[in-house]
């Protein structure tokens, strides 16, 4: 950006004093109309941890192979960050009507870093204040054959809650096994949790999603979507759709073990075993109900359950999907993805949008980057996104941001 001629006063790195490694890059292109509210391009540049030894390719090197980009963060969300930087370089040359700002922040994925978006809102909101912000979320769905099903706009997102489940006991020598081995007991409790079914729940946004893609999916699965929309108690339809992880996550609360620790020696029975659960609640989240459901599912009366974190994103009202927001999305989609419907959806994860919405900045998850049902294996091994998805998403986002910047 410096090489492109950005004045020093229009780009800066903001670092929270309490976390010197949590850097945030902020940039601005002043608009022609100083009275028009800004457009903000928000992205996080931190990623979930990756173990090089587990990956087929180096996770920290961008690799293009057989039409795919591989590497940690390619899909979540450095491709979109790169589009934001390029958009700022373009606007620096053309100067739009509305001021355009960019914030590439740290700490969205946790990992012990201060959340940059939240910190800036709390400590220097004018730097990112805007009339409209765009960030990750939504995107596009591809079927098993790579056909585009729908371009999605995030209208709501799930709450996140972490619990720890812990068992303790006297332990003992491994040569004389006790009948209540803590690892075995907690493993059995996790199997019971895995088999538990959280109820189906529809809201405006996941209903819009399934109604929009059902005709595009067609066949048995499309019929199941129509049946479930008509009757959320349809057990057979729910069972069929829940075979696809993304659809299961969109239809109900989910709760899975993500970390385990226990034992103290290879020749000793464990004295303490602990599992961390990550749960994603359908909005509006009910923490007390969720905790009761987890306790009932694990059926382990001696377990100690503690709440580590609860992010009540659902308590922040969603930004309204007005025509001012949606009309440019449909127009850009018609140009880049002709014939593909635009649908509102409820994201299965949380984003930094809640922090901005709470501060009065309308924020929307829009990327135009289509992914298959594996979502590019975000947060997992060999994270990837297709080159075509990135380039088509880039073309879509440039049209969309240009439209917003000239409103």
Question: What does this 3D model show about the protein?
Answer:
The chain is of the alpha/beta class and 407 residues long. Helix content is 33%, strand content 25%. The chain has eleven helices and 19 strands. A six-stranded mixed sheet has the order 1-2-6-3-7-17, sandwiched between helices. The protein has a four-stranded mixed sheet with strand order 16-9-8-18, sandwiched between helices. The chain has a four-stranded antiparallel sheet with strand order 12-14-10-15, covered by helices on one side. It is globular, with a radius of gyration of 23 Å. The two termini are 25 Å apart.
Write the layout of secondary structure elements.
Blueprint: E1 11-14, E2 24-29, E3 39-44, E4 63-65, E5 68-70, H1 74-94, E6 100-105, H2 116-124, E7 132-135, E8 139-142, E9 148-157, E10 159-168, E11 172-173, H3 182-195, H4 204-217, H5 219-230, H6 235-241, H7 245-251, E12 254-262, E13 268-269, E14 272-281, H8 287-298, E15 304-311, H9 323-336, E16 342-347, H10 353-358, E17 363-365, E18 370-371, E19 384-386, H11 387-405
Parallel strand pairs: 3-6, 3-7, 7-17, 8-18, 9-16
Antiparallel strand pairs: 1-2, 2-6, 4-5, 5-19, 8-9, 10-14, 10-15, 11-13, 12-14
Helix pairs in contact: 1-11, 4-5, 5-6, 9-11
Shape: globular
**Poorly predicted runs:** none
Mean pLDDT: 92
Note the gap between the termini: 25 Å
What fold name stands as the CATH topology of the largest domain?
A: Aminopeptidase
Number-wise, the strands total: 19
| Biggest pleated sheet | 6 strands, mixed
CATH class of the largest domain: Alpha Beta
